[in-house]
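DM from R.C. (forwarded with permission)

"hey, sorry to bug you on a friday — could you get me a structure for this? deadline for the figure draft is monday and I only need the backbone to look sensible"
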Amino acid sequence: MVVYYVYPQWHKVSFGIIARKHIRELRKYIRLYEVDELVLPHFVPHTRPLLILHPLFYIMTRIGKHAERLIPRTRGIIGIDVADSDMISNLAVSITNYCKAMIVPSKWARDAYRRSGVTVPVHVVPHGLDSIYFEKPKEFIHFKELYEMKEDKGLVYLLFFCWHSAYRKGLDLVLKVYQELRKRRKDVVLIYKCMHADARLAMTIRRQGGIIISGWLNEEQKIELYDLCDIYLGFSRGGGFELNFLEALSRGEVVVAADRGPWTEYLPDFCLVRSHPCPYVLRNNPIHCGKGVEVDVKHAVKKILNIVKHLDDYKERVREYVDEEISKRFTWECIGRELANIIHKYL
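My reply, with the result:
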């Protein structure tokens, strides 16, 4: 049986990064071919393959009427996608009806699908980490100057990643919390990682003593940045999993995040802070139409100040938690086996 894995290959998006990890692991168990999502409207398979579409909603809305021609030529579709909010739209639910099954990265996402009316099977397969995250020793080559400045001045580095979707990622909440922290402790410094720095935003962060890192980082550079920093600000209002949180945790960072959301399925309780609902995660989004969560700014500030005061203790607790809970469960090898077992059910 042939399996075609369809995903965006023509530009760098988070879905593509995860898809390549899936493909690498699935090829250990399944005969699988990669297909760029741009090819799909003109795709004419002759072997009746099983199609994996990742991300399902984006691809299906792009191919539109071509789906009616394509589906009879296949053995079926397995959709892989997320739920960025606690509900998905009627359009999204109708798209899932074309599928034999859905695969999502968290129970949070599965519950959102069920709540919204999805009736096909929904399987949970979380994201994973490569072995380098658990094995690579700490060394500072790419960010040596920042490391030396940290050591010389006794700084505590906060880290925040914002590749896209600033509101969903909670950038405004990060800035509010950081502003309050700087009133109390000048040794706490925010490192803001983005793809392209907005001039006005960059000026705001630098005025508060923050540091901007922009552009694409390879895996070793990204790991070094995690190692450089002490506390990761996971202030997302929503999302299907939030892999950056898991990556930071695995490298020993204390990840501060809301006490509701998919990240609670892998973060330790001592990392979580009080939160409240917010009316939307992505305004006027045709797929993710539900509510999200926001960290309580005052409680987050209080939590971070306590972590800074007892940083060594918190980091030791994180190391123990990673050894006991994360390193054995959240590896791409484990995830690949889970994924293959699910796909075999539909071959």
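R.C.: lifesaver. The chain has a mean pLDDT of 95.
me: no worries. Residues 311-326 form the longest helix (16 residues).
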